[in-house]
C-alpha cells in the first residue's frame, strides 16, 4: 500500500495514509519518511494519520489475536475512521478511499455514507501466490490443517516439509 501511495503522490495526488496507532508507531520508528517519498509539498501532499485498533497498548496485534483485532477494529475503528474522514474533509475533501482488502469492512460503509468512492486493494506477494498455488495440494496430502494437536507456530521442521512437498510436486 505504501508503494501505491508513493506512486499516487508522485502523480501530484494528495494522499492521507491511515494506519492503526500500533502500525503508525512502528512505521515512524523504522522509516525515514522524508527521504522515502519525493513529496511536492511535504506539509500538504502526503499526510499520515492513525486510528486506534482497540487492543490494549501492551498487547501488540499478532496472528494469535487476529480475530480479537478484527472484532475491535469493527467496534473502535469505524467511528474514529468516519470522524477522521470528516475532519480531513474540512481541509480537503477526499475524492477516493483506497483500502486494503482486509480492512474493507471498516471503510466501505463509511465511504458510501459520505459519498466517497472506495476501492478495495489487496496487496499481494510471492508468498501469497505460492500459498494459494499449493494450498489444495497441502490439504490433499494432509499437511493442512496441521496434523494432530500441533499449534500454529512456524518451525524449521514445517518449512522443511513444505520445501520437500514443493520439490516432490516438481515445482
Automatic annotation (TrEMBL):
Keywords: Glycosyltransferase, Transferase. One of its GO terms (molecular function) is quercetin 7-O-glucosyltransferase activity. It comes from the Eukaryota. SUPFAM superfamilies: UDP-Glycosyltransferase/glycogen phosphorylase. Belongs to the UDP-glycosyltransferase family. This is Uncharacterized protein. It comes from Dipteronia sinensis.
Amino acid at each position: 500500500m505504501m508503494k501505491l501511495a508513493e506512486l499516487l503522490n508522485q502523480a501530484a495526488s494528495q494522499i492521507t495514509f491511515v494506519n492503526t496507532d500500533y502500525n503508525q508507531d512502528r512505521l515512524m520508528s523504522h522509516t525515514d519518511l522524508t527521504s522515502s517519498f519525493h513529496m511536492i509539498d511535504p506539509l500538504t501532499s502526503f499526510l499520515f494519520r492513525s486510528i486506534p485498533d482497540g487492543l490494549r497498548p501492551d498487547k501488540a496485534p499478532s496472528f494469535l489475536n487476529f480475530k480479537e483485532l478484527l472484532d475491535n477494529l469493527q467496534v473502535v475503528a469505524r467511528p474514529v475512521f468516519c470522524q477522521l474522514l470528516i475532519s480531513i474533509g474540512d481541509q480537503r475533501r477526499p475524492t477516493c478511499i483506497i483500502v486494503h482488502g482486509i480492512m474493507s469492512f471498516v471503510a466501505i460503509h463509511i465511504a458510501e455514507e459520505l459519498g466517497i468512492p472506495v476501492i478495495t486493494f489487496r496487496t499481494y506477494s510471492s508468498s501469497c501466490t505460492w500459498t494459494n498455488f499449493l494450498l489444495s495440494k497441502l490439504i490433499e496430502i494432509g499437511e493442512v490443517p496441521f496434523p494432530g494437536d500441533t499449534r500454529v507456530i512456524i518451525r524449521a521442521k514445517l518449512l522443511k516439509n513444505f520445501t520437500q512437498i514443493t520439490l516432490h510436486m516438481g515445482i
